[in-house]
């Protein structure tokens, strides 16, 4: 099998793996945010009943926070199922990559067979989780854009622009700046992976259509021969 096919499949698996990890991370952040708000609202409710001072709390905010927790937990479970499949393929591909570096030229046929089996496994995994994977792509894009915007807005406190040029100011908590930079870099990396994987998914959709058409043609041919 051509080396370009092997390299392309490596990129596909790598970006698929990254999108799966990002989805789990975004779902965990959503669940953590919902849990934080729920705790705050519960504390407010408790203080309302245990103190004479009335503490305001919002039932709507509490409902939204609980919903965010449930959605986050559900999406973690859903993404984890897809992640397990792609992680297994990624690990086997890593073993095959090591073999490519150590085996001699006469073993090309065996390596090609192993790579073909991995591609078939990927297509099967993609077909079984087609709808979920497409939602994962959009979740990754949306989460990346949201984190990028939040990180950019937060970092604006440290920069100011004027006619004389740009200036940089250390804010009240300079330790937050590295975390903002990491957050923006994380968002950019996840957005790039989701865009690349979206392009790969369109190719896989075409592959699945070709396979389905071949299966339909084979089924019709068998029906005609048996009839």
UniProtKB/TrEMBL annotation:
Keywords: Membrane, Transmembrane, Transmembrane helix. It comes from the Archaea. The chain crosses the membrane at residues 16-37, 57-77, 136-156, 176-198. This is Uncharacterized protein. It comes from Methanocalculus chunghsingensis. The lineage of its organism: Archaea, Methanobacteriati, Methanobacteriota, Stenosarchaea group, Methanomicrobia.
């Amino acid at each position: 099998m051509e080396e370009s096919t092997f390299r392309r499949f490596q990129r596909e698996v790598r970006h698929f793996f990254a999108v799966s990890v990002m989805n789990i991370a975004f779902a965990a952040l959503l669940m953590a945010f919902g849990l934080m708000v729920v705790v705050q609202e519960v504390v407010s409710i408790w203080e309302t009943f245990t103190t004479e001072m009335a503490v305001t709390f919002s039932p709507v905010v509490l409902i939204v926070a609980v919903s965010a927790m449930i959605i986050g937990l559900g999406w973690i479970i859903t993404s984890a199922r897809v992640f397990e499949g792609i992680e297994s393929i990624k690990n086997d591909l890593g073993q095959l990559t090591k073999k490519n570096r150590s085996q001699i030229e006469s073993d090309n046929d065996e390596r090609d067979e192993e790579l073909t089996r991995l591609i078939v496994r990927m297509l099967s995994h993609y077909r079984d989780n087609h709808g979920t994977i497409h939602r994962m792509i959009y979740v990754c894009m949306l989460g990346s854009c949201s984190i990028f915007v939040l990180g950019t807005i937060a970092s604006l406190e440290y920069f100011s622009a004027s006619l004389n040029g740009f200036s940089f100011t250390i804010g009240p908590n300079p330790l937050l700046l590295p975390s903002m930079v990491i957050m923006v870099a994380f968002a950019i990396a996840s957005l790039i992976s989701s865009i690349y994987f979206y392009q790969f998914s369109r190719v896989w959709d075409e592959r699945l259509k070709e396979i389905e058409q071949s299966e339909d043609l084979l089924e019709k041919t068998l029906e005609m021969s048996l009839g």
